[in-house]
Each structure stands twice: as C-alpha cells, then as structure tokens.
Amino acid sequence: MTTPPPNPRSEPTEHPAPQDRPARLTVGVVGAGRVGPALAASLQLAGHRPVAVSGVSDASVRRAATLLPDVPLVPPAEVLAQADLVLLTVPDDVLPGLVEGFAETGAVRPGQLLVHTSGRYGTKVLEPALRAGGLPLALHPAMTFTGTPVDVQRLAGCSFGVTAPEELRMAAEALVIEMGGEPEWIAEENRALYHAALALGANHLVTLVAESMELLREAGVGAPDRMLGPLLGAALDNALRSGDAALTGPVARGDAGTVAAHITELRKHAPQTVAGYLAMARATADRALAHGLLKPELAEDLLGVLATGAEETR
Question: Which of these, 107, 147, 209, 306, has the minimum number of CB atoms within 10 Å of its CB?
C-alpha cells in the first residue's frame, strides 16, 4: 500500500475539489442496525438520495422509519438493484457470506459502490463483489451509535477508519468528509489491530463505568452518575493529553494495603468484578512501573497482593 496522506487531524480538512467529489448517488442500506440508517441520513444531508433499506427486526424497521422516513423497506437484493452506493451495515461475522451471496446471485452491478462499515475487515472481504465489477470501500466510523437522530450529529468530526484501493481513495475520502467525518487511512493488514484498539478503549470503558456505578450504589451513593461524570471526564481528558503520565490512584502509588482492601470488599459485595479488577490493576501496575510512576520498592508488595488475589479467584 502506498504511503497514506497526512493525518487529517493534524491539518485543517480541505473539502475535495468538485471533480474529486462523488456524483450525487442513490443510496441503499443492507442491515438497518444502528449504523446504516445514520450514515444514509448523513449522506442525504450531503445531497445524496436514499432509495431503499432492508431490515428484519421491529427495531430495525423503527430505526429506518425514524432516520429515513419515506424510504421503502425492501429485501436486500432489491436494495442492490436500486442503489448506486450500498451500505453493508451488518455484523462482522455475517459480512463475508452476505457479500459472497450477492456476487453469486448476480446482484452486484459493475460500477456499483459497495461500502461496508466493519472495523475488523478491510476491502479483501469484498473481493467477490470486486470480481463482479463492484467498487469496494471500507469506511468504519469510530463512534458508538444509539440508533437515534443524535448519531447523525455525532458524525461531525468523527474519525473513520478507511481502507480503499488506490483508485478509489479520493472517492472514499470525499464520502467520509461529506458525512462530516475525518478519514484515517488503515492498511488492510492492520484492520483487526485497529478494531481491537477501539474495542479495548470504548467497549470495555462502558463495562468499567457500569460496574463502577453499581458498586457506588451498593456503597450508598444516591447519584453515581453525577459523582463519576466529572471524575471520568477529567481522567479521559488527562489520558488523551498525557498517556501513562496521567495514571493516579493506589496502584500507581504502590498502596498495596488499599488494593488488598479493595479486593476483600469486592469479593464480599460483587465477586463477579474481582477478576476484571485484578487484570486492570496488574496492567496499570506494569504501565506505572515502565513509566517510572510506581517505585520498584513498592511494586513487590503490590504485585504480591495481586498474585494472591488471582490465585484465590481461580
């Protein structure tokens, strides 16, 4: 793959010249989950025309009706028959078989843009469609979606992990910018690592916050969300600005006694959280040691407490 263009976050985003912008396109959505209707609605704001959407569940039908009113709900093959640009917004494990099926049944038209939004895959997963004449793009929005109109607003400034053939890079960039996003070029071989990084940060964050709120309620805090909001907001801001230098708390300080007390209380009130606490505490200790925040003479007792806790959890 050729050297990617400069990171768009480091320079003001320039909108593509008219000759580099995609023509006004008819847009279809295969899989009316939380992502597809929001992207189609965003493309509609940019002047493209959603013409068809497929969805099976009641929730999918409701999302389509809310974000894409008056757009017909049709079978997936009919979406491809009507649209110049097809958004394949289905679960990762479903995508390969879906693409293969479309290609085998002749549903893919030459020159048709097929855009999947999977973080895991690049364009290789779309090779069956490419052989049928389709034009493959991987555009993954690095954003959590709710399935409501607020998602369209959140796309403003959202990074997209983009993988595309060289000849389609300008078209991919233009589509992302039209949706209000910032293209970040990801090599095909790095897609799974890229997606793992996002899942580690975003998906696991939700789990950690939810567990923290439950524990605060157990401790008698009436409004755990109000207590955590400023703290977590500051922690996130500090981490994004300073990385490991932002580490604080008993693990980073080497307070082995405090950590032992935490483990005892968690076993008593929320034993299902102990394994996660120990794993994150060990990872935090390793990073604090490497960064010089945790003094080696304090680390021994701390790591002993964590090792004992792990043994008792088995």
Answer: 209
